[in-house]
Amino acid sequence: MINFTVGPVQSSDAVRAIGAEQVPYFRTAEFSELMFENERLVKKFAHTTEDSRVVFMTCSGSGGMETAIMNCLTGEDKALVVNGGSFGERFVEMLTLHKIPFTEIKLEPGKALKPEHLAPYEGKGYTAFLLQKHETSTGVHFDIDLVGDFCRRNGCFLIVDTISTFLCDPFDMAATGAGVMITGSQKALACAPGIAVMALAPSALKRIEKNQCCCQYLDLKLALSNMDRGQTPWTPAVGILRQINVRLKEIDANGGDSAEIARCAELAKYFRDKLVELHLPFEIISESLSNAVTPLHPTTQSAFELFLKIKDEYGMWICPNGGSMKDTVFRVGHIGYLHKEDYDKLLAAFLDLRKKGFI
Ligand SMILES: *Cc1c(COP(=O)(O)O)cnc(C)c1O
């Protein structure tokens, strides 16, 4: 199978080799060193300030989103949240569950965030802002500078879900002034799923210190005090943390985050150029694309039927959409261990389906 989804994605041979090894005991100086190295490289690639911290939570990316809310926000906050698709909707559900007062900025699927969407909330006493930098469900890459500037002017604490854009599109955490950045092990980090990575700016550390977290397992006070010695309060997904270490070092050796972003951008451009060249019956649905994924509306066939056909008859996974977009949208990812030849195979499958009259 070739995997063009947005996670889990294909891993490099070195990362996969770790998966075949025995899982080592971890309350050791050697494992602590590995954790410190992971922290140092995440800080480097996310462009955090020197005094920021990184924690590795054993949960998927959504666990990282909820951890951020539970540890950094309270009922005293007044939050703004952008809901541009299913991941924005998840933030909305979590804010509701945890009783954080909020206002939702709901965007039509595929639409970019514009200054006029934020203008009504200027100077209205908002204290926090939650955003997917890339709303993966519809492939919309939001303007983080627009949001960062709004937050600076209004004194809002910014929580950014960069789960599907970290290492795909440029991101400078210090420059945007974000308090929390969240990513996951199974997106562009291209490891097994199971670890949420969170970078925490001093503004977040201050909020965490003051706050009483209602969940012991996801309490960032405990995660941070353990991370002082390169450890975690509970048994973490040790094998995945070792994969992350190999992967981060791989990226560092190959030119760092900018080289990885360029590689992802090149794959995205290669695929998008071919779509136009071959006149395939697919329309790009996003106004503002990330390098991570191309969201497509097939004009002649159900998106889900196309997903099944490509999976069952051509041995490849494109990424289906759920809910109301099940039949209208599918996505082709550009993250993980993929090469141009893989896209040639996918494009050949599309051409074959066109010849057969399926699309
Ligand atoms: C994948 C993803 C998540 C988290 O999904 P999990 O399945 O919990 O890892 C959250 N936000 C965005 C934008 C994502 O792409």
Gross geometry: globular
Which small molecules are bound? pyridoxal-5'-phosphate
CATH homologous superfamily of the largest domain? Answer: Type I PLP-dependent aspartate aminotransferase-like (Major domain)
CATH architecture group name of the largest domain: 3-Layer(aba) Sandwich
Q: What is the helix/strand order?
A: EHHEHEHEHEEEHEHEEHHHHEEHEEEH
Provide structural commentary.
With 359 residues, the chain is α/β, with parallel strands linked by helices. It folds into 2 domains: 13-253, 3-Layer(aba) Sandwich (Aspartate Aminotransferase, domain 2), CATH 3.40.640.10; 256-355, Aspartate Aminotransferase, domain 1. It is built from 13 helices and 15 strands. A 7-stranded mixed sheet has the order 2-10-9-8-5-3-4, with helices on both faces. The chain has a 4-stranded antiparallel sheet with strand order 11-12-15-14, covered by helices on one side. α2 crosses α10 (238-253) and α11 packs parallel to α13. The longest helix has 22 residues, at 256-277. The model has no long low-confidence stretch (mean pLDDT 98). Bound molecules: pyridoxal-5'-phosphate. Residues 7, 60-62, 87, 132, 136, 161, 163-164, 184, 187 line the site of pyridoxal-5'-phosphate (PLP).
